[in-house]
Records
---
Amino acid sequence: MMTTRTRFAPSPTGYLHVGGIRTALFAWLLARQKNGQFVLRFEDTDKKREVEGAREHLIKSLKTLGLEYDEGPDIGGPFAPYTQSERLDSYKKWAKKLIDSGRAYADPYTPEEVQAFRDEARAAKKPFLYRNHRPENPPVWDGTTPLRFKSDPKSYDWHDEVMGDLHTGPEVIDDIVLIKSDGYPTYNFAHIVDDAEMEITHIIRGQEFIASTPNYLNLYEALGIERPAIATVPHIMGPDGNKKLSKRDGAKDVLDYVRDGFLPQALVSFIATLGWNDGTTQEIFTAPELIEKFSLDHVQRSGARFDEQRLTWINGHYIRGLAIDDLYQQAQQFLPGEADTYDENYRKAVLGLVQERLKYFAELPQLTRFFFIDLPVDPALIGSHKQLKKLESTELKNLLEQARAAIETSDFSVADLTDRLNTLLETTGQKPAVLFSLVRIATTQAPASPGLAETLAVLGKETSLRRIDAMLASL
RNA sequence: GGCCCCUUCGUCUAGCGGUUCAGGAUAUUUGGUUCUCAUCCAAAAGAUCGCGGGUUCGAAUCCCGCAGGGGUCACCA
């Protein structure tokens, strides 16, 4: 049996957004599941659109998400090179085959002339077909004009691994450009040659290629190449409407999510289930589970919307499941700058307390700042509290003084603090909503915080008493 | 305009002729978990399965129309 070989073949024209990475993920999953190979190939045949640094960025994106490839531009492999601009000889060789067999010819028209044909078709509200203007006696191709495929228009029935059985008529087949006047091949030609030479068995690509697939089928025949399996996945749509998710509309770089503190495993699970499921009610998958369960025929045929809320939920789920050391390792760089002066144990303790209320790491400064610096006393916290605002400041002061006295002799373990605070509830006859809120506000000056005893235990006696004193002074 | 694809709760989806007056998740709302926020646990609300015909004893599921959305018709990929 042939080993499964899949590829991800981006053009180095920018960063990778969620829609793009999904194609890579599916290809990677398929290769891993079948114990095959996953190949990275750069399709850099349009020099005008190329963006500096895009290659490194693409590689970093794949590696960050754990989609490691077996062969690629930077690591080589048995079919190197893996960059199209370095494979021009291959394309010329295959092009010559077509010329020799009468299946390719020089395009004798100027770009303006072709454009005129196009305008004509558009004015007549008909699809543009170059072959309607196919020259009778084209000149010998000298490499300075486009080389076109002499197509053989016919109907096609083919099977798409995702879309199912597809059919088109001969009217969609045209004389596509194989090699441009600048000497570089078009995607249409290059990917077919490369996939054949690199022994790719499965092509996974976006919906925009479905319309040109019949042309590829025609080309495979002329080249005598057996076509790989083709899987066309739908686009991921933007959150607001029905349009394709695109960089123009603000689709974020996957690395931006990582920068905001989204975990790679959460991104992978989210992207995989955006248009795929295993048929059960399982909602979140680890990479090994995905590798085991993924299948192309469960990929959705309609485009899914990108819902950041769902990603946020999955990320929170993964964060909660992290062991404290893993959490520390991944999250410590997101702590506020003030945290630098505290030791590892203290910072770990803080992370442990906020772990279950963390959706993504970029929230950490806001959630934890009061653990590292004394925030100024904020009267609004009392003023907006529905119980505390009803009390006179002398009452508040009295309560807070009792609280201070109660914890002053504590060893500041969670258990002892809990005991003392509970005893205080009885002796003062106050409800937790009043007493605990007051102490919590005094010691944190934050609208929200983890549980009171836990927070005090981490803050420690000195800090807790100092903040209570500051609060007392302001009442 | 031609051709092609798609259409189930706001969102992601299960469903592949009967066990479904459509199940799960998320989001929303409410209640509980000694204070806040969150977690967790309950519960509520939320889809005439795009519309209209047919086939069938029976259709979200099969067929045909229509509508809406998307893609494509580049010397871009």
---
Amino acid sequence: MLQIANGKSTVVYFLLSGWLCLSKTSLAGDRQIIDFLLPGNLFDPGSGDEIMASTDVSALTDARMAVIRRDVWLQYLANHRSAQDLGSRLAAAGYARIAERLLRIGKGNAETRIAYAICELGLRANRHGLVTGQKFHLPLTQQVLGDFVGLSSVHVSRTIGRLVRRGVLSYGDHMDIVIHDVETLAELAEIDPHDLQAEITTLAGRSRIAAAATDGARRLTAR
Amino acid sequence: MLQIANGKSTVVYFLLSGWLCLSKTSLAGDRQIIDFLLPGNLFDPGSGDEIMASTDVSALTDARMAVIRRDVWLQYLANHRSAQDLGSRLAAAGYARIAERLLRIGKGNAETRIAYAICELGLRANRHGLVTGQKFHLPLTQQVLGDFVGLSSVHVSRTIGRLVRRGVLSYGDHMDIVIHDVETLAELAEIDPHDLQAEITTLAGRSRIAAAATDGARRLTAR
DNA sequence: CGAACGGTTGATTAGCCTCAACAACCGTGG
DNA sequence: CCACGGTTGTTGAGGCTAATCAACCGTTCG
């Protein structure tokens, strides 16, 4: 596990493959996952200085990252308006994700939180959409999912079990998920169907951007 | 109340005085406050497009904002490295705030949430510190505070009442708060004393930056 | 003056946590 | 080959926290 130092980091990371997670741990010892990082996401430890408590980064799977010198990255942003856009878009998307989840965690019950997490991660895991019959894999344990949505692993198990018994979805070991009824799932997640559709189209569009960014990141890689 | 549109906004706002709040409302009708905006904070509706559901902005007090044309702002950022730093710092600080609060809401009990909110808002309200004997005013109702930390207003009342009875703090009408015992308050908030001290110093340092930024924002104001 | 709002308090209920036991599945090593 | 510990998930029982419903008070405001 990599602890984010308080000092200035001289590099930024661009995730090429694998899943990472950003988490915080309370003084009481409880862990809260702030966000997951998926391929195409940028991670800038330097922007994390000045924050109150530190954040941990850990890998959920094997992962490959492009390490980019910070000055090179900033220079690149300054010179390329489109890249500057990309940077702020990635940041805004991260903020939007966490805000949306905050709403579910602050006001939603266990079903809402779990359903929303599955929708969010399912959408991000395969950048194409989220439809009935779709199968995907999330490299998470129920413990990790609980730390993500603020539930105990026991209650995660019960809640998912209820969803399975109701026929909304089924899942095999290690979070191999098959969605049987997207409408119900989205409804439980309190996602506006219109928003869901909008998110699907923007996500699909973003995979092109991500592909281009990945190429760029490779070129900028520090040696 | 201003609903953030999905289309591109052509301006950004720099808050000169007053308190605003950003909130989301679930389909079930529950409101979650994402963050408060205080003087010196920047608000960029344009970076909010592509997000799943929209965000509302409402004013808690009378407020004055500098309205800056978006292209002017971006140009300014591109030309001034220090301003670029400022922009990313403000964004990072916003992200850090919400992440830190997510930890409390996801894993903390009512006392922790309330104590943390009072610490966070107290620190931001007067940019100098947070010490025993300090008095400050938060322009919030208990209902708003509840929407902020994910509790019902009834439970907010009970929890604050308990803190008052224990002698940790006292407060008059409309959230005039006097802190009697910072150590205990910080402990309940699960704030590492070391982090608290660090936050106080950076906040103090930031007031200079904010003052400079406010001047800059006034000059950039669109007519 | 009545109406609306913010806050307090009581009683009851529901949801989630905790503890605990157990099953299934790994990889390891005898 | 099987025994073993470790991890993950499932299920049950009980307890506690916070939500809900409701009544009430004080203040403000039309």
